[in-house]
Design a protein that fits this description.
By secondary structure, the chain is an alpha/beta fold. Among the domains are: 91 residues, Gyrase A, domain 2 (2-Layer Sandwich); 140 residues, Isoleucyl-tRNA Synthetase, Domain 1 (Orthogonal Bundle), CATH 1.10.730.10; 76 residues, no CATH class. It is 49% helix and 12% strand. The protein is built from 21 helices and 14 strands. The protein is flat, with a radius of gyration of 29 Å. The two termini are 37 Å apart. The model has no long low-confidence stretch (mean pLDDT 93). It binds one RNA strand of 77 nucleotides through helix 2, helix 7, strand 8, strand 9 and helix 17.
RNA sequence: GCCCCCGUAGCUCAAUUGGACAGAGCGUCGGCCUUCUAAGCCGAAUGUUGCAGGUUCGAGCCCUGCCGGGGGCACCA
């Protein structure tokens, strides 16, 4: 259990004890929260509960704090508990306990900081969900990286997680795709054909047409556009999958919208909505009474022509999620979808489910910056940098890092120059270099022909340098970070944490040498142990972010 | 017109969900390489948290109203 939870429980117990012996008056126990204070001089953990209790207890906060502190049981990992005006209770970790942390890390490096929050519950993360009508764009990439990071963290928090991609494999957009490819195909054959305004303009359409000519020559000249659509859809879908895999995103499930029609779920959804009185007919269309759930106006779910709008299958899809028994669903959407997300949840409620199990995560846009200037893009005209091109240019790791380097509510300027810069200005290299430096120590150690398990059983009480202890304090915090990312779905906390950990590592590396002649033998072994644990920490954190942990750079 | 997001150091952004003196990076200025990668380290300067009220022991965070920037308001997805 995380320390801050244990300490909160201890404070609650102390409150009860103080009440039962009359030191404190009777009042209802508040929610006790123990946090890490911003100011490290205030200790490692702190609670302001005495301040909150001043009114119900009708006592000075300082006195309440003292009463709590006096009734606290002794806790093995604490060095001391102190009370500070105006009524904070501060807890300080014992250095002796911190010094043993490397062994805890090394006991299960890739599990360190994990917790049982999810308790085996089923979670789903849905992201990207681009239709197979073109290459993966940067906005979808951001959603994908956020989603995959949340997925990795949720797994570390004990959830059984399904990473899922929802896409429309039929309908109007696919029809337009097929027509677009056919037009290009005919044009390449020198036949008269023109793209319409709504057709896909991108160069990749021409490429697809070229592929078809290479494979089939002019045999498809009189074939209907549907055939082109199926070819293009499958080809683009496969390409999207391969591209996402290049940045470490591999989906467990690709959910086809069309399957909702095949199973009858779409129409079943409509029938249920009708039977529950949430659908009415007007102007020949079927309207969803979303105003019953606070919407500005009702929304069309079946057009006058009899064709459903995207909302109906979206609702059917979320109904399906509810039926699959997910305890938690995280839906990740870009800013262009923020208006539609609430409507889907209204649909879920109209179907008779609570929508509480769904968390909608909306993120802002990504702008590429080169030489300090934004790179102009136009999705409509098919002029944009694709994920594939970005991976070619900067590699996967900078993409993974920078896409979570800001909170989802902030837009990101993706600096192409910085992304490939090999210096401390580039946080990606700065973090990975910490891992490289650790690996370097052990490489040197092996080159010197010294036994590679020499640090086993080292006397860790020799780790008394303040840099070492500061690093270990930060290492311990990983558990808190995983917990917060798994409950708040804010993976940028992980990116900031990784940077902070590296920023505490590098000065330690400078000041706490290992292989130098002036480092006495017992200390050398303790530090080897320390750096082995540090390397494990960086491998762990990089892995949580889906990044590589290089041995050399 | 309505809805959503944002407004914090010169720039880009954090701030443990209402806690202690608002922090990082970049940029600027000044130091540090005979020693495990200087792809690094050390130090300095930088704030009326857009404005005005309100809530309370306490507000960057919550409420109201303005101002400014971005996005969205389809029988498209």
């Amino acid at each position: 259990m995380l320390h801050h939870h244990e300490l909160a429980a201890a404070v609650r117990a102390a409150l009860l004890a103080a009440q039962s012996d009359g030191t404190l008056p009777l009042f209802d126990l508040p929610d006790v929260t123990v946090e890490r204070p911003r100011e490290t001089s205030h200790g490692d953990y702190a609670t302001a509960v005495a301040l909150q209790l001043a009114r119900p207890a009708r006592m000075a906060p300082l006195k309440i704090a003292t009463a709590i502190a006096d009734h606290l049981p002794s806790i093995d990992y604490l060095d001391g508990v102190s009370v500070a005006p105006p009524g904070f209770i501060n807890f300080r970790l014992s250095p002796a306990w911190l010094q043993q942390l490397p062994e805890r890390i090394l006991a299960a490096p890739q599990g360190f900081g994990g917790n049982g929050l999810g308790d085996g519950k089923k979670a789903q993360v849905e992201c990207v969900s681009a239709n197979p009508t073109g290459p993966i764009t940067l906005g979808r990439t951001r959603g994908g990286v956020i989603g995959d990071t949340v997925h990795r963290v949720l797994e570390s928090a004990g959830y059984a997680v399904t990473l899922e991609y929802y896409y429309n494999d039929a309908g109007r957009q696919i029809t337009l795709l097929g027509e677009s490819v056919k037009v290009r195909y005919l044009q390449l054959l020198g036949q008269p054909a023109e793209l319409a305004e709504e057709h896909y303009q991108g160069e990749y359409i021409v490429e697809l047409a070229r592929e078809l000519i290479a494979e089939r020559g002019d045999a498809l000249r009189d074939v209907p556009a549907d055939t082109f659509a199926v070819y293009a859809r499958d080809r683009i879908s496969r390409q999207q999958k391969e591209t996402l895999a290049r940045i470490g995103i591999v989906f467990d499930v690709y959910f086809r919208e069309e399957s909702l029609y095949e199973t009858g779920k779409v129409w079943e959804t409509l029938e249920i909505l009708q039977s529950r009185g949430y659908v009415y007919e007007q102007d020949g269309a079927q309207w969803f009474r979303s105003t019953a759930f606070g919407d500005d106006k009702d929304r069309v779910v079946v057009k006058a022509g009899g064709e459903p709008t995207y909302r109906l299958p979206d609702m059917a899809y979320h109904w399906d999620k509810a039926q699959r028994g997910f305890d938690l669903v995280v839906d990740i959407f870009g800013p262009d979808h923020h208006a539609t997300a609430p409507q889907v949840l209204m649909g879920v409620r109209a179907l008779g489910y609570s929508s509480d199990f769904v968390y909608t995560l909306l993120h802002q846009i990504v702008t590429l910056v080169r030489s300090g200037k934004p790179v102009k893009m136009s999705t409509r005209r098919g002029q944009y940098v694709t994920l594939d091109e970005l991976v070619d240019e900067v590699g996967a790791d900078p993409i993974r890092y920078f896409m979570i380097s800001r909170s989802a509510t902030s837009p990101i300027d993706f600096d192409l120059d910085l992304a490939v810069e090999h210096s401390d200005k580039n946080p990606v290299y700065y973090i990975q270099n910490a891992h490289v430096r650790c690996a370097g120590i052990f490489r040197k150690w092996a080159e010197a022909g010294l036994p590679d398990d020499d640090d086993a059983g080292a006397d860790l009480s020799l780790l008394t340098h303040e840099r070492e202890l500061a690093f270990l304090r930060k290492a311990l915090e990983l558990g808190d970070i995983i917990e917060s990312v798994a409950t708040l779905y804010e993976p940028h906390r992980l990116a900031f944490y990784a940077y902070d950990l590296a920023a505490l590592f590098h000065p330690t590396y400078e000041e706490c040498r290992v292989l130098h002649s002036d480092v006495p033998e017992p200390l050398r072994r303790a530090r080897l142990r320390f750096y082995r644990a540090a390397q494990a920490m960086f491998a762990r954190v990089l892995n949580l972010m889906g990044m590589s942990a290089p041995e050399v750079m």
